[in-house]
Amino acid sequence: MESLGSGGDASGRGDAPLVTRRRELDAVSRRAVLDAFGPPRAVWTPPDDPSFVGWGAAATLSADGRNRLTQLQVSADRLFAHIDADDAPQGTRPRLVGGISFHDAHQPDPPWTGFDSARFVLPQLQLTWTDDSAWLTANAVGPDDPAAVDDRVEDALAEIEDATPSGRISEPPGVTSRKRCPSRERWREQVRAAIDRISGGDLQKVVLAQSLSVELERELSLPDVIARLDIAYPDCQRFLVQPGDGPVFFGATPERLVSVSGRTVETVALAGSTGRGDTTEEDEWLAAELLDSKKDIHEHELVADAVRTQLSPYASSVQTGQRTVRKLPTVQHLQTPITAELDDAEHVLTLVEALHPTPAVGGLPPDAAWETIKETEAFDRGWYASPVGWFDAAGDGAFAVGIRSAVAEADRATLFAGAGIVADSDPDREWDEVQLKYGPMLDALE
Ligand SMILES: C=C(O[C@@H]1C=C(C(=O)O)C=C[C@H]1O)C(=O)O
């Protein structure tokens, strides 16, 4: 490990060549290979792009402190400086996969063991699925003999060929006990205190979160959890990060933080929520009410304005799409797509830094919101509501906001969900909204 200034380290041996080999394979079952290869691993399955899985660590970059994303960019540039092939199709190029914690003051204590303030891994093996095939990419850094990398490819190919899915996707493990933080009564007090602060004028919005710790009847099968989320949440970004043998962070989030491809930036404002109806009529009525709700439009537009403002130093023209209702299995949200063309090429981490946390998960103004969150929430957000994603040597990449998520180890999991509080929020409605947002993870577990 070498040190890159305070708190930064990289096992990427910046000046050593990065050796990459790739092979196209017949389609393989992701569930089967996830079963066959253990941690460290990462899964990234976007709604509209190929699925990606990484195993092992050819290099690990981690950093903390206020400059964590700048430090990471420096170590990543060094790691990628001597890449031996970069003209391959996008999904097959070497990628750093990982994420950062909600706040830079985070310590990787339980349940977040292994989840540094910022941590990205260049996998030893990457598998990327295309429409009818898959690509295996093997990465190695430094004194590794290129012939050893070829051997690793052959070994991995043999193992992948042998990997067969183990029967049907199992049923969720089942929940035997649950512990909420805060209690309903305490939540009411917290929301009222936040509203008082908003009335005082130094805060416009704050997103307060809850945690739900559950014990499971059986140990969690990660390949099966991901398979169940694929079926139930195909329109969401499914992700999983497991730094070592310990905990895993996973989710199915509807919220893109930012993606950068060349000069094109895509992001979204997602805030303002209601439930789903039991009938089509009720569902449409709820959607219409949401689209018309002054409180939700206010909550939403604070996010859209902040996103546009944060992008403006990098892009002279920022396009705002139409505000519509995004329907998810347990909730509906107001959503506005936002796109921009960058004036100059920028690294996706620069935009992550500019945007995180948006007021969809933090609040406004950001410092007053963080102060309120820190004083109010009696648990560590860890990587919940934080940027999770990947980037490559060109600085292209994609990041989601890690909501609708849980951190789990063996037969325990902690789920997180939050709601935006504005001046006219009602504590009980916000409570109900949070329970709906636990839906995706609870469905995966019970
Ligand atoms: C904070 C969460 O969700 C965010 C908050 C929303 C809201 O307050 O309406 C809606 C979508 C997300 O941006 C969460 O799911 O935990």
UniProtKB/TrEMBL annotation:
The chemistry this enzyme catalyses reads: chorismate = isochorismate
Record keywords, A-Z: Isomerase
- The UniProt annotation puts the region (Disordered) at 164-183
Q: Which residues form a coiled coil?
A: none
> Known InterPro entries for this protein?
ADC_synthase (IPR005801), Chorismate_C (IPR015890), IsoChor_synthase (IPR004561)
Q: What is this protein called?
A: isochorismate synthase
Its top-level enzyme class, in one word, is isomerase
What's the EC number here?
A: 5.4.4.2
Query: Chorismate-utilising enzyme C-terminal domain: from which residue to which, for each copy?
Result: 184-437
SUPFAM superfamilies xrefs: ADC synthase
> What one GO molecular function would you report for this record?
isochorismate synthase activity
Q: Which family does it belong to?
A: Belongs to the isochorismate synthase family.
Q: What is one Pfam family matched by this protein?
A: Chorismate_bind
The answer to whether keyword Isomerase applies is: yes
- Isomerase as UniProt keyword: yes
